[in-house]
Design goal:
Layout (H helix, E strand, L loop, with lengths): L2 E6 L3 H12 L4 E7 L2 H11 L3 E5 L7 H11 L4 E6 L4 H10 L3 E4 L4 H12 L4 E2 L4 H9 L11 H11 L4 H8 L3 H15 L4 H10 L7
Parallel strand pairs: 1-2, 1-3, 3-4, 4-5, 5-6
Helix pairs in contact: 2-3, 3-4, 7-9, 7-10, 8-9
């Protein structure tokens, strides 16, 4: 399946570079390009792309408002925000607006391609340096409806990273093995992780490997 993408950025060089990068993957095609926020909203409504890659800082309408408008008018389009900033507040605002992914502009080409493929499958994707910010916010107790991991999910991540099976984790938490499996799949979708080794690596990278 070819994934259709809308690119919205007010810098022509970056747009051209992203277009070449994405289309070189073979399964992604850029079907629309926008130079400002208002144009992005209009083009998304017209072409209904699978994915919209939106710069957070654009003329006329900023990326957050563009995301909110696309989520309301073209809910089948998954929005990925591109930004130079990785503050928890900004990331959470983008998620509340309806973004399915968040990438820093310093991301590698492979990461951008992976993000597009991941959100096109209905999952979330947070780039390097982004997921850690959100998990850090959870760890320190900041409350937000946009936080990607619930306290229960964080417990399950820690147990899985410690080598516990679904059944063992279920016994510790007082849940059924089926419930643990459901939680595990849900949090992997939220974090854009494709398999168990990636989940364990994520837990290690973000200091979630100890219980308590």
């Amino acid at each position: 399946m070819v994934i259709s993408v809308l690119l919205a950025d007010d810098h022509g060089v970056l747009r051209d570079g992203l277009k070449r990068l994405l289309e070189a993957s073979g399964d992604i095609r850029v079907t629309a390009i926008a130079e400002d926020g208002a144009d992005a909203v209009a083009r998304a409504a017209k072409v209904k792309p699978d994915v919209a890659l939106i710069d957070i800082s654009m003329p006329r309408i900023n990326g957050i408002e563009v995301t909110r408008a696309i989520a309301n008018t073209v809910p089948t389009t998954a929005v990925i925000i591109l930004s130079m900033h990785s503050s928890a507040e900004l990331i959470q605002e983008a998620l509340r607006a309806g973004a399915r992914g968040y990438l820093l502009k310093e991301s590698t080409g492979d990461e951008v391609v992976k993000a597009v493929r991941t959100v096109a499958r209905g999952m979330r994707f947070f780039g390097d340096g982004v997921a850690g910010v959100l998990v850090e916010g959870c760890t320190h107790g900041r409350q937000s409806s946009a936080e990607p991991l619930t306290p229960r999910e964080r417990e399950i991540v820690r147990l899985i990273a410690a080598g516990k099976s679904n059944g063992e984790a279920a016994a510790i938490l007082g849940l059924s093995a089926r419930s643990v499996e459901t939680y595990r799949l849900r949090l992997m979708q939220k974090l854009g992780l494709e398999d168990l080794p990636a989940l364990v690596k994520f837990a290690i990278r973000h200091g979630m490997t100890t219980l308590g």
